[in-house]
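Team,

Forwarding the record for the chain on the shared tracking sheet. I've put the sequence and predicted structure together so nobody has to dig through attachments.
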Amino acid sequence: MVRMEAAGAALAVALLACMVGAGADGSDHRYKEGDRVPLYANKVGPFHNPSETYRYYDLPFCAPEHPKDKREALGEVLNGDRLVDAPYELNFKEDTNSKTLCKKTLSKEQVAKLRDAVAKDYYFQVYYDDLPLWGFLGKLDRNKEHGGGKCLLFKHIHFDIMYNNDRVIEINVQTDPNVAVDITEDKEVPVEFSYSVTWKKTDIPFEKRMEKYSKSSSMPQHLEIHWFSIINSCVTVLLLTGFLATILMRVLKNDFIKYSHEDESLEDQEETGWKYIHGDVFRFPQQKSLFAAIIGSGSQLLALAIFIFLLAIVGVFYPYNRGALFTALVVIYALTSGIAGYTATSFYLQLEGTNWVRNLILTGCLFCGPLFLTFSFLNTVAIAYSATAALPFGTIIVIILIWALVTSPLLVLGGIAGKNSNTEFQAPCRTTKYPREIPQMPWYRSTIPQMAMAGFLPFSAIYIELYYIFASIWGHKIYTIYSILFIVFIILIIVTAFVTVALTYFQLAVEDHKWWWRSVLCGGSTGIFIFFYCIYYYHARSDMSGFMQTSFFFGYMTCVCYGFFLMLGTVGFRASLLFVRHIYRSIKCE
C-alpha cells in the first residue's frame, strides 16, 4: 500500500512539475540566422464551435512526406491539441518573397470538403516557436450578381515575424482574398499553395512577448466593467454584513433581557421562536452518509478552487501555456482527495454513522461518478465525429492510473485519518428523544422558494464576470485578470455564507428545526442559477451549433454547475453550523 502510494505521489508530482512548462518544446528559444524554428500545425475547426476541432491534415492541405506528431503533455491532449509538423520553412531571419508549398489537383470530394469548411468559417491554428497564430481557410464572396456568390479558398499565406536579437518575439499571418481559388462548383480544381515571409526587428523583450495576447482582457473599458462588478459585489457584501450584524445584536440583546428578567412574559415568543426548538435543532439529518459525502466532496472542490487561483495569480496560466490548466485540475484534484476522505468520514462518524467504508466509497463517486459518465458519453461523440477532443487510449490509461495510484489511496488514507480522529459533534444543547412538530409554513418558506432567494444574490455578484469566463472557455477571447476573478470568488463565498445564515435564522425563528439539508440546498442553489445562465449564454450570446458542440457545452457545464452546487452547499452549511452553535451557546438549554 505504501509502495503504491509512493509511486502514485511520484507520478502526480512529475505531472505537476511539467505543468509550468506545458506546451514548451524543450528549446531555449535562441536561434542563429538560418536556423530552423519549430513550426507545428495544430488543428482546424468551425470558428463558432470551439470544442469541434479536427486534425490539421484531415483537410487536403499540403503535407510533408512523413509528417511527425509532436509528443504532447497530458494537459495538451485534454485540451484537444494534436500538434504535427507543418511544411512551411520559416528559418530565422530569412525573408522569402513567394515560395511554392505544393501543387495539387483537388478532387471533387476534396473540393466539397473544403467548400463546407469555408462555409462554416473554419480556421486553422499553428504554433511557431510556441507562439500561436490563426487564419481562416477562405471566405464566402456574397457580392456577386450571378450564382448567389462564390466560395473562395485562400492559396497564399504571408507571415510577418518580429525578432529581437536571437529570439522570436511576434508572428502574424495574413491571407490575400485576391490570391484565391474558386471552389464553388463540384469539379476538379488545380491549385498551387504558396507562402511568403518578412522579418522585422523589434525592441520588445522576450519576457513580454506573450503580453499582446492578454492586452484585450485588460483594456481600460474592460477593466472598468470588472471593477464595476467588484464594487457592486462589495456593496452587496456590506449590506448583508450590516443586516446580519443587526440580527445578531438583536438576538443577543433579547437574550440579555430574558436572562435579566426571569419573570418575563411569553408575548414575544413568535419573534424569538428559535429558542424553543433547542432540543431539536441539533437532531442529525436524514441520509447521513449522503450528507457527509456532500460536505467531503464540497470541501475538496473548495480546496481545488483555492489552489487553482493561487497558481493563476503567480502566473502559471499565462496565455496559451497549452494544457497547463487541465494538467493542474487533474493533478490537484487527485492530491486533494485526502481532504474529501478525511472530512466526509470524520463528519459521518460525528453524526453517529456506522458504515464509514460505504460512506467513503460514496464520497469518492459523488463527483467523479457523474463526471466519468459525462466524459464517456462525450468522448464517444468526439470519436464518432473524429474530433481532436476524443482522448487517445493512452491518455485514458494515464488518467485511470492517476485515479488508481493517487486519488483512491489518498481518499482511503484521509478516511482512515478521519476515523481515527475520534472527534465528537459539538452541540451546545441536548437533543430531545422525540422531535418537535413543525408548524404549518406559508408557501414562500418551502425549500424551492428559499433556494431561489438564496441563489439570486450570490449569482448577481458574479454574473458580470461569468460572461468573460464563458467567452474565454467557449470562445476565442482571453481571460488573464485572475486577481480580479479571485476577489469575485471570495465575494461569492462570503455572500453565499451570509445569505444562507440569514435564511437559516428565519427558518429557526418560525420553529422549523430541519435546517441541515436546507442550508446545503440554499448554499448550493447558485450552481442552479449558473446552469440557467448557461442556457441563456448558449442561445443569446454565442453562435454555437451542431450536436457535438451542444453536447460538449451542456455536458461539461452541467458537471461544473454540479461542482459549484457541492462546493457552495458546503460553504452554506458550514456557515450556518457556526451561526447556530453560536446563538444556542448564548442561551440556557434546559
